[in-house]
What does this fold into?
Amino acid sequence: MRLPRVLLPADRIASAEVARGLRMLLLDGVCSQTMLVLSGGAFLVAYAILLGASNKVIGLLFAIPWAAQMLQLPSSIIVERAGLRKAVVVASAGVSRIALLAMAAVPWLFPAPRRLAVLVVSLALFWGIGAVGNCAFSPWMRDLVPDRVRGRYFGRRLSLAVAVGAAVSVLGGVGVDAYRARVQPEIGAYSLLLLAAAAVGFLGIACLLRVPEPRMRRPEARSVGAALVQPLRDANFRRLLLFLGTWYFSVNLATPFFAVYMLTRLHLSMTWIMVLFLLNQGAVAAFLNVWGRLADRFSNKSVLAAAAPLFMASTVLWPLTGLRSSPAFVLGMLALIHVLAGISTAGVMLCGWNAALKLAPRASTTSYLATNALVFGAAASVAPILAGWALDWTLAQGVAWTLGGGGLPSLAIDGLDLLFVASVIAGAVALRFLSRVEERGDIEEMEVFAELYAEARTAARTLASAALFRGFAGFPYDLLRRRPPGEPPSGDGAPE
It folds into this structure.
């Protein structure tokens, strides 16, 4: 079957066509991020809870996107042999996004006992089929985007995408709470969000069709085993794999349960959760370009060494939100946590991928990146499943402690808090592996922090312009609290 010309690679691409393609790629990034925001995160957690999901099921839902990345290795062989990266990306994206329609239909077309199973299968199809396209996307971008500006360009692309996605998330949160107040059942709001996610996803495919593809250099035919062995024999790349695998294991022990913590322990409304998500994504957007410039100036490893500890610091702070203190303290602490996590995520997300891309030989980019996806995908998929099982077990056994008392603020410690501690310990191990990676341009992380501080003053002004911190003291917190049906407002409006 002959493919349409728009899907075929070209031997020569005019500079004007490349420039137009890069603009379309920015729009695709916005569409893809918006799609993921509306179909995942706290929205997916709340949707699953309404369908009756346990912590084990929530852990499984968050494991699926990472497990799907393991399909990139066999997919890389197909991509290398076909040489049609754009066609693979467009086809896989189109098929995978149909699964979002199935997820939206779960409460309406399936009986209650089968709904969670259908949700899990649909999510697996969405991410699994999409992973085939992800495998082709990275080497396509390596050939299209010039080396000298790659860090800054993808920093700008991610920054724009997360900024728009964050704004959309708040609108989604407000919409969910408005729907809950006026329409029943509440679960219909999440079906509408999934339909919107599918529509925006298909718009992103239309943008990708206008991005040109240079003809790829065809490597020698290899088996899946050979594609796996070559990156593992590369000692320096193997050290990077150890870092990324351990790091993503660390992050995914805790991250899937941040929304659970806010919904079930702090009883925050979806609007307020999305405002915090906006703050988080605002930090990501503000610092992606900062980290991109630092990575281009120094090295990806140096940025990773500076960014990763910030996430560990934010994770340590979560249990402190359980202190019986003023609403302003709790929300201020949550704001600090989300900002630190956003700054860290921006650096690790950008430079982890760029480091793998930089250390991979050009002729073997596809297999190196696929092996990278296999390793961190396996680690990141095991973590939330293990965490969900451990959390349900500790809750069933009643494992909990209360610290403080006697005139001091009391702090409840349970399974969620233990997960956060375990995440930090695993992150410290990951940093040890990172220290052994060799990359040209390495400098000490304290030097990166010095440069970061100078850059951060501008980025901080960008964050401050959002005025998200204003009005904390006088805000009617009780209106944002998610109360069980029939429960009267509390006297002071404090999150419980």
About this structure: DSSP finds 18 helices and two strands in the chain. The beta strands are 401-405, 408-413. The domain at 17-216+225-469 is CATH 1.20.1250.20 (Growth Hormone; Chain: A;). Confidence is low (pLDDT under 50) at residues 465-496.
